[in-house]
Amino acid sequence: MASLTPISQSQYVFRKAHLKPLQAPIANFGSDFIPNSISLQFRLATCSRMIKSPLKATVVSATTAEKPKRRYPGEAKGFVEEMRFVAMKLHTRDQAKEGEKETKEPEERPVSKWEPSIEGYLRFLVDSKLVYDTLEGIVEKAAFPFYAEFINTGLERSEALAKDLEWFKEQGHVIPEPSSPGVTYAEYLMELSEKDPQAFICHFYNIYFAHTAGGRMIGKKVAEMILNKKELEFYKWDGDLSQLLQSVKDKLNKVAESWTREEKNHCLEETEKSFKHSGDILRLVLS
């Protein structure tokens, strides 16, 4: 905001110029030689010179007060990078080098210290399938037109999880019904998708992209511990995964280009809720 001081100074000078008589008298050559109009012009010109400097200072003050546009972390690379930056901060130092969160929950400890069970892992897979079923159904229904951009991205997991659960059934395991964490999250995603698209996209991004990174690492470690190193379909993708991810990144960035800064910030603010719900489901592995 421009400084008010120069403006008040200019007003003060302007009043003084009118109220205080000029100290040096003007030579009297007679009214016939110097018309009244010329005398008036002389006085106005004198006042103009007296207030010129303060007015100029006001303009300079307004210019120097302007602040450069704020740049958000990752903004120069696109909105996906902004989402990634916020998500990384919510990891622990054991989970990511950029993490700032203290380790509090059991699932936040290094996976090497976990004690998973097949029963708990099955509950995790069942609840995860419910969430992915919900995500895939939402984009197909497309309550907002841009949701349709994310149909058949190659990152879908519902079909792969169905195959994994069938394999467990063939091994003699009882497949449980979805539990509270999965049901609660699926309902929340449905609600968001219909009235808050920016918040929904935050969850969409974090669910799919987290699974391709930390999710894969967890799957590998758990398989070594309780599945004799079997690789589940949940952790396999058709085609080059890096290319699939890049394609979805490009689409997410394109969609976010039409959002206001406030809408983008609202999306970023939803990250913590995304982590909470996903964490509740991941904790089932240790149940």
TrEMBL record:
GO MF term set? heme oxygenase (decyclizing) activity; metal ion binding
Protein name per Swiss-Prot or TrEMBL: heme oxygenase (biliverdin-producing)
Q: Does the keyword Chloroplast apply?
A: yes
A GO cellular-component term linked to this record: chloroplast
Q: Which family does it belong to?
A: Belongs to the heme oxygenase family.
User: What Enzyme Commission number(s) appear in the record?
Assistant: 1.14.14.18
Q: Which InterPro entries match?
A: Haem_Oase (IPR002051), Haem_Oase-like (IPR016053), Haem_Oase-like_multi-hlx (IPR016084), Haem_Oase_decyc_pln (IPR016951)
What subcellular compartments does it reside in?
A: Plastid, Chloroplast
Q: What is its main location?
A: plastid
Which keywords are on file for this protein?
Answer: Chloroplast, Heme, Iron, Metal-binding, Oxidoreductase, Photosynthesis, Plastid, Transit peptide
**Its GO biological process terms?**
heme oxidation; photosynthesis; phytochromobilin biosynthetic process
